[in-house]
Write a structure and sequence with these properties.
Blueprint lengths: L1 E5 L3 H12 L3 E5 L3 H10 L1 E5 L2 E5 L3 E3 L10 E4 L6 H7 L9 E4 L6 H6 L7 E6 L4 E4 L2 E3 L6 E5 L6 H12 L4 E3 L3 H22 L10 H20 L6 H14 L6 H7 L7 H14 L4 H21 L2
Parallel strand pairs: 1-2, 1-6, 2-5, 3-10, 6-7, 7-8, 11-12
Antiparallel strand pairs: 3-4, 8-11, 9-10
Helix pairs in contact: 6-7, 6-8, 6-9, 6-11, 7-8, 10-11
């Protein structure tokens, strides 16, 4: 399969490397020139539980430099960059190209549907861990899964093909009729931990310093899942709560991407996570005071961080 990956950060590079190792035709698309140059010179260094190696049978380029129309475009850009990123690869979207979003937050399918027919969109979530250790170097330890489904709820032949290709690369992929439940469960997890760590300027395990940290995180999870239920989506609160408890204990030293963005003076994904939850909550009349307060605090932290970075 010809696969293009839009957004070759940690997750995009991990997926691209593993798919290339499984003999798929992979092109990484990104605007990080140092990363692209390192891959061109040395291949993609992939460090996983399976070993430390360089993957050379893939191509990495800026979006405008790609010419092959892919069978599958996997989108890993941050939500606020989706529309601009899609515009940069409009020439690659052929009449049979399918697009898979594995991005965080809400609103990604709607952004894709502005340029791609909904029946050619797949939506999913993944729990695979990945960190960009340097230009051309991605590190991933542990395991994960992918849950996906067609955005229109149908099961076209391409769905089974994508599941098979991703699973053959060791990515443990499953078609899931309740994929929107999975999306909202991940949103609830992120809406609790990412902003709390960002406001505190602390890693995830710092939330375990006092009992209030876990209590507040679980309160936010409850608010977000109440919005999901009001939207007619089935979610598993016990599973999300267990994931939050596990993260606070096990993810020692881990700084969520939202905190990393603030520290680098970049815009965060707060609008597609907490912001999207608050907007949906208002439409359904569901109170989400803790989720909204965290949104407002992160907006303040983000604005101040970006002001400091400005020349």
């Amino acid at each position: 399969m010809k696969i293009a990956i839009l957004g070759a950060g940690a997750m995009g590079s991990l997926f691209g490397g593993l798919l290339a190792e499984a003999d798929q035709h992979v092109t990484l698309l990104d605007i990080n020139d140092a990363h692209l140059h390192a891959i061109a010179m040395h291949g993609l260094r992939l460090e996983t539980d399976g070993g430390d190696r360089h993957v050379r049978n893939l191509h990495a380029t800026r979006p405008g430099g790609a010419t092959d129309v892919p069978d599958l475009l996997i989108v890993f850009t941050k939500a606020m960059h989706t529309r601009a990123a899609l515009a940069s690869v409009h020439h690659l979207l052929g009449p049979a190209t399918h697009v898979l979003t594995l991005q965080n937050g809400l609103g990604n399918v709607e952004a894709l549907a502005s340029v791609v027919q909904r029946e050619r969109i797949f939506v999913g979530v993944t729990t695979w861990p990945a960190d960009l250790a340097g230009p051309g170097h991605v590190r991933s330890h542990g395991t994960g899964v992918i849950r996906l489904m067609s955005a229109d709820g149908e099961r076209p032949p391409m769905l089974a093909r994508v599941v098979d290709v991703l699973s053959a690369a060791g990515l443990n992929c499953h078609a899931d009729e309740n994929v929107w439940g999975a999306v909202w469960e991940k949103v609830a997890f992120n809406a609790a931990l990412n902003p709390l760590c960002t406001v505190l300027n602390q890693p995830v395990d710092a939330l375990g310093a006092v009992e209030d940290g876990l209590t507040l995180a679980l309160t936010i999870v409850d608010e977000v899942l109440a919005v999901a239920r009001a939207s007619g989506i089935a979610v598993d609160a016990a599973k999300v709560n267990d994931n939050v408890r596990h993260a606070i204990v096990a993810h020692r030293g881990h700084k969520p991407s939202m905190l990393q963005d603030v520290l680098a003076g970049r815009p965060t994904e707060i609008e597609s996570i907490n912001g999207a939850v608050v907007a949906t909550a208002r439409r359904h009349g569901v109170p989400v005071p803790h989720t909204e307060t965290l949104m407002q605090l992160v907006r303040l932290v983000q604005a101040n961080a970006m002001h400091k970075q400005a020349p």
